[in-house]
Amino acid sequence: MPELPEVQALAERLHDRLAGATFIGADVLSFSSLKTFSPQPEDIQGRVLASVGRRGKFLLFDLGGPRLLLHLSQGGRIDLMEGKSTSRPRGGVVRLRFDRGPTVTVREFGTERKAGWWILVQGDEGPLAKLGPDPFSDEFRELIVAGSDTGRLHPMLRDQRRVAGIGRGYSDDILHRAKLSPFRSLSSLDAGERQRLLDAVHSVLNEALEVERRRDGGLPPKLGDHWIVHGRWGTPCPVCGSDLRRVSYESHGTYRRGNPGAGLPFRTVAAHDITYCPACQTGGKVLADRRLSRLLK
Question: How far apart are the first and last CA of the chain?
Fold first, then answer.
């Protein structure tokens, strides 16, 4: 999933190429992707794009009052194309057209949690209202320095209601750099550990942003080539050389609990992985798999 560095750098590229352009229209390529009913896309035609920015993992197109929001979710990506295009690309979500510059085509390469977009009137925060603070904000600093959250650090960093913009990939890298177990809680950290965590959040995201700013065009299907440890379990830790490990936890997916014919409700569950280094983060202990908080010797 694109996280803060990918979305921020993409917003900057889009702003450089499209700010000041007039919005011509939106080709809705997937009807269910538009999450709002009013205003309609035709209601914002002719408006000038004031800026393209970011809030959390959302792209924000400021049209001088109304705003158009894009969220790429897990598998959403963006193609920038010069000239007119009337084709329906595979996995197409929406095509945004302006009077100059490239068309912005959102495509979906995933199977769950599809990319979506919103058109909001001035003053309507829509899905932004539920987002937590930005990782570089004073509010987030206060959360880390003085917070008493008793939940695990890894889910806390990924929870968009607690902090907006960080996902699984950068959570792994941040906790590795901070030398903290993903199963620790904020309430268990001393002052020095809290400062390490804050410094790691800022340094990991800033370094990733520097890399993402070298990218041209839109956002390709493959991301994460500059992650430090995320997804690299079984390879040597870049700090100590020990083998990186993984631990699974339940997240998103769908199954029906019990007898399928009994009318029981669906539950949303699936396994995802955290990558970590036992030597650097857990005192040499291996975390128990499948969402258990105990440690294996």
Answer: 33
